[in-house]
Specification:
The protein is α/β, with parallel strands linked by helices. It is built from eight helices and ten strands. It has one domain: Arginase, Chain A (3-Layer(aba) Sandwich), CATH 3.40.800.10.
Length: 315
């Protein structure tokens, strides 16, 4: 009998019933003994276009009920070697973005102090800034794998310096990330100025625009990123709008001609071996996807991220 938490099997309890936790894992009220904590950050007050990501964690959990514990493509068995539980949602202040970012930072300080790897379900992308503040406080400036349609390096939006579109400029300015080990994958679309992407390249960010990735396997590129990062601590942040809206329409700021879901799997799977100290999946907005397909895709990408965490064994 395994001593690790296991998702409830669909052969033991119908998948349309049971707890609304990620993959129907046990819910934990304490961090003791955990290796990985899955958590929700149900917030959309940092977004600038379509709201709804406050419903993301609940819908991702609901769609995750179909996912089984063993990865048949890679052999990864995350629940055989890591103690994983869903610790619920952070109690953000839905009326204050500034206060919510402080709550996230404080919560992550506690999670990381316990030696637990946090895996977050957003929420809009503004959640990643306080997460990186906590991660850098513990690990120092980290490498960053950022998969997104947007570079999120605006200086401000409507006079605000902390929004979902300013995250990685603030992270760069505050020394939270290694600029020469920051990889922005899938960026595309129109911009506010001709320098929207080139400025960040001047800081050292490495860009992989979507149009350069069309009709290509992402495994070789991701393998080179893995080699470039080496054994440095790395944070992975995955914005669902990196995918083409044909695959993930339920998001706040969709951009056409994005990545495909097979490319997303290739990318994540090739990151196996990195010293991942945390990750998130953000910008799932269920009101713009009544079929639930975007949340289903997000849930599966989170599972794939679990499969490449340090310490995961294969069967």
């Amino acid at each position: 009998m395994s001593s690790f938490n296991q998702p409830i099997s669909g052969n033991d309890l119908a998948r349309f019933s049971g707890p609304n936790t990620f993959m129907r894992l046990p819910q934990a009220s304490a961090l003791d003994g955990l290796g990985v904590a899955v958590l929700g950050i149900p917030m959309d007050i940092g977004t600038s276009w379509r709201s709804g990501t406050r419903f993301g964690p609940k819908q991702i959990r609901a769609e995750s009920a179909m996912i089984r514990p063993y990865n048949m493509a890679t052999g990864a068995a995350p629940f055989d070697s890591l103690q994983i539980a869903d610790i619920g949602d952070l109690a953000i202040n839905t009326f204050s973005l500034a206060e919510s970012l402080k709550i996230i930072k404080s919560s992550y300080d506690g999670i990381l102090a316990s030696g637990v790897i946090p895996v977050a379900m957003g929420g809009d992308h503004s959640i990643t800034l306080p997460i990186l503040r906590a991660v850098a406080a513990r690990h120092g400036p980290v490498a960053l794998v950022h998969v997104d349609a947007h570079a999120d390096v605006n200086d401000e939006m409507f006079g605000e310096r902390e929004t979902h579109g300013t995250v990685f400029r603030r992270a760069y300015e505050e020394g939270l990330i290694r600029p020469d080990k920051t990889y922005q994958i899938g960026i595309r679309g129109s911009g506010y100025a001709a320098t929207d992407f080139t400025e960040a390249q001047g800081w050292g960010f490495q860009h992989f625009p979507a149009e350069d990735l069309w009709h290509r396997s992402l495994a070789p590129m991701a393998t080179e990123i893995r080699r470039d990062i080496g054994d440095r601590p790395v944070y992975v942040t995955y914005d669902i709008d990196s995918l083409d809206p044909a695959y993930a329409p339920g998001t706040g700021t969709p951009e056409i001609s994005g990545l495909t879901t097979p490319q997303a799997l290739e990318l994540i799977r090739a990151l196996k071996g990195l010293n991942i100290v945390g990750c998130d999946l953000v910008e799932v907005s269920p009101p713009y996807d009544p079929s639930g397909n975007t949340a289903l895709t997000g849930a599966n990408l989170l599972y794939e991220l679990l499969c490449v965490l340090p310490g995961v064994t294969s069967r």
